Amino acid sequence: MRAGPVYDRIGTTYANTRRPDPRIAERVAAALGDVRTVVNVGAGTGSYEPPTTVLAIEPSATMIGQRPRGAAPAVRAAAESLPLADGAVDAAMALLTIHHWTDLNTGIAELRRITRRRIVVLTWDQSVFQRFWLLADYLPEAAAFDEARAVPMERLAARLGGARVEPLPVPADCVDGFLAAWWRRPEAYLDPTVRAGISLLAQVGEAAIRPGLDRLAADLASGRWHERHADLLTRDGFDAGYRLLVADR
Description:
Blueprint: H1 3-10, H2 14-17, H3 22-32, E1 38-41, E2 53-57, H4 61-64, E3 74-75, E4 89-95, H5 104-114, E5 115-124, H6 126-129, H7 133-138, H8 140-147, H9 153-159, E6 164-167, E7 170-171, H10 192-196, H11 199-204, H12 206-222, H13 224-228, E8 237-238, E9 242-248
């Protein structure tokens, strides 16, 4: 899982910009159901961990250092080699992390190996995600970066053993600052602190995305963005392509 070195470099603001959104937390909790023991793989700062979390797996010391007091114990390890026995926990959760794994097949095999009942994965459907206005209109370089690591939903569901796929619309006032969280608040993408909490933009790099950000700033100043996307301004939620996959063992 490559996220360790990456997040040691770009993850320093996550505790401030990536706070769990309560509506997304409800969906994650519902997906996990009544399981008694959960391991969080690619756990980051601990967002969305239920009280039943017994262990967090995270390769980045920077991210572990931002976990709140009282969070589940964390171990520095990779998804491809989980330090747990076969069938050790009822469920595993892996939220917005699989795109960082070095070997997806091995990581999924490890999730299946350690769980007795359920696996919950949050990721995105690239066929939908690439049409999000920020990527399609302003940052095609970022869309291309994601295209190289995207996994089709049907293939991912099959690898998980036949997972059901649930759309996860993003609330208009989402407090978790992942990439599409600001879909109705476009000015936020001009804030370097917000961008620092979005791994895709941080990885692509400021030099590559600066021309697109300048175009966005100009369109916001002229009112062109608001004219083009007037339909978004009355919505309470938006399907940017995020998907919950729930696989029963």
